[in-house]
Amino acid sequence: MKVVGVLDSRISILSRAIIMPLKTAQKLYKFEGLVSMIVVEPKETITSDDLSKRIEEEIEGVKALTEEERTDIIQPLLSELEKWNFGITAALLFLTMCLVATITFMNISERRGEFAVLDAIGAPKTTALRMVAVETVIVGLLGSSIGLILGVIAAIMIVSKYTSIPMQLFMPSLTDLLPLSLIAETVGLTVAVSCLGGIITTLIANRKLTTEILRGEH
Amino acid sequence: MNIKTVDLTRIFHVGSHSVIAVNKVNLEIKEASFVSIVGPSGSGKTTLLNLLGLNDKPTFGRIFFNGKDVLEINDKERRKIRLFHIGFVFQNFNLLPTLTSLENVELPLMLAGKSSEEQRETALHLLELVGLLHRKDHFPNKLSMGEMQRIAIARALANNPKIVIADEPTGELDSNTGKEIIELLYRLCEERKVTVIVATHDEKITSVSDVVYKMRDGAISGYC
Fold first, then answer.
1. B88 and A125: CB-CB below 8 Å?
2. pLDDT by residue (tens digit) across A89-126?
3. B94/A120 CB distance under 8 A
4. Of all residues in chain B, what percent are helix, strand and coil, respectively (each to 5)?
5. Could you give the ipTM of this predicted complex?
6. Which has the closest alpha carbon to A197: A110, A91, A98?
7. How far apart are CA B209 and CA B49, in angstroms?
8. Spatial CA neighbour of B129 closest among B162, B160, B97
9. Residues A182 and A90: beta-carbon distance below 8 Å
10. Among residues A185, A156, A5, which one has the least CA distance to residue A89?
């Protein structure tokens, strides 16, 4: 076997495992052309525990696991993966929120002059707030939707490149990769943060005297 | 609209210092008169105009519009007075850069709840009045200083106000354009019976004024 690379991973699931293409593994363990796993269902007369013992006794070199045993092995790994997945998603979401809030803050700060003019010509106090609320909802909706679409496309492209799984194979399970609940959460949170950031900034901007702002506008 | 101020005072607090920008100003401005306020920079002209335009609140003193104390009414009513009865022309124009000339003039009309047809019709008429109908679709950054000032005047006139307050309207303009603006303001006063109050250094404006108030250190030091 030719070593093509070494992965230094901090993820414990990868540090305890060897990952290789199925064909390489079959060749390495002299199972070329053979299946990698057989799933058997015990008859009513025998339990799964007994069946797995009998298989291991009768067929040399075979490891037989019951559903429970398999779950016991996989579950900790899955849990850890799930934690990592949640952590990464939460961190990305937090970064997105910070970015949205910062952009909204900058945008509103630059428009203080505009709000001061509206105030000076007698616009109701709520005009600026309504403008900002509508704008931030639209921007939040568009931004999060476009971000989600581009994010999913990028993720699929990256995963496809590094796993050699063709991109079209991800398409049928797109709703699993990106469930509606996640879309709703992301869009809802982005819109809420964008709107809240805009309204708070507008309220702060409105506290400054209109006359002071207008005097500084050129 | 007659305007009267009684001991109008505005004090700004900057850190531990207090600056008396307007100091016990007593004015009486008659309806449809052209009034100039002159004085050196920092004498309190702009602060006084902001107080008269209800953009700012005095620390002490009273302002009466046709005998009614406008400081006793609530913020919502003051905004209505600003929208319907006062047109403010800023020294630096303060046009909204994302709106065209026409839209800038339409803005106060929209805020006043006028129909879109009425907004369009009035705004076009006002642009014609200030001689900029051909620039209706241009954004402020495509206009000259004089044109921006004329758009600002058109905006100030949108809701047919009884008072037009202009803060150094010719301050950033060349003499010919300044002259046109003065003529425009004078025409408003004469033809529309609008009370025009102008803060200025420009002698051409003071020469057409009914009353000229001189300000120094926040106080009225004389008038003629």
1. no
2. 788 778 877 887 788 788 877 888 888 888 888 888 88
3. yes
4. 40, 30, 35
5. 0.84
6. A98
7. 16
8. B160
9. no
10. A185
